[in-house]
Amino acid sequence: MFSIEEVIQAMDASNLSVFEKQILKLRFGIGRPQPLTLKELEETQGVTPWALRQIEAKVIQQLHRSK
Questions:
Q1: Spatial distance between the Cα atoms of 40 and 63, rounded to a whole number of angstroms
Q2: The whole model's pTM is what?
Q3: Cα separation of 50 and 34, whole Å?
Q4: How far from chain centre, in Å, is Cα 45?
Q5: Known InterPro entries for this protein (predicted)?
Q6: Domain 4-66 grouped into CATH 1.10.10.10
């Protein structure tokens, strides 16, 4: 598994939009007490679980490239 610091670095190095980065911060609980669930993100941000998985995949690819 990757650390929060590695996820943040990968997000910074990626070509994610500001919105996508914000969604990931909410999903991973970066800067907040707890991460949001897929359901909570869908309800509050209008992001479908499928779209969230696509955003997560971009960061995971960046993490694998950086190792």
A1: 25
A2: 0.76
A3: 21
A4: 13
A5: RNA_pol_sigma70, RNA_pol_sigma_r3/r4-like, WH-like_DNA-bd_sf
A6: yes
